[in-house]
Amino acid sequence: MTRLLLIRHGETDWNVAGRWQGQTDVPLNARGRAQAVALVSQLAGTPLAAIYSSDLSRARETAEILAQSVGLSVQVDPRLREIDLGEWEGLLATDIQARYADLLVQRRIDPFSVFPPGGETAAFALARARAALKDIVQRHAPGPVALISHGFLLALLRLHFTGQSVSQLWTLIPPNCEPVELSV
User: Is position 181 annotated as part of the catalytic site?
Assistant: First the structure.
């Protein structure tokens, strides 16, 4: 078993505006950087074996703030990127609802098969994240390992490893910079 600390990156301006980010490389805002600093205090005393991050700047910067405080380097893995939302990236939820209402409903029901135009399914995103986790677990058992990634991808991992119903997926998206412990 390896103890993982799943951590969603700090806040971005697109989070505040309600824009769907996906794989668009949006940086942290000032509050997001402050959340990352607060994360350092929250994890004080936790002896981390490693810190992994998505290659997108919002996750990488969050990870670098944590890594600097504990004397580790960040190991960047693009397989930890957020799900690719294709044409939905940069749009507000209300815009997506207005333009793609039927597809959005289908995706909420079956995100493992239904994808945004030009994007990827949850099944594809989960497969690449699981491959990354397999490598991480082999290198760092028993951990703990901090994994800084993105809301939907972390929710997919939580769903997969806890065996909850797909209907719970949307409730498993963690708040920015709040660690969720998972043993794999």
Answer: no
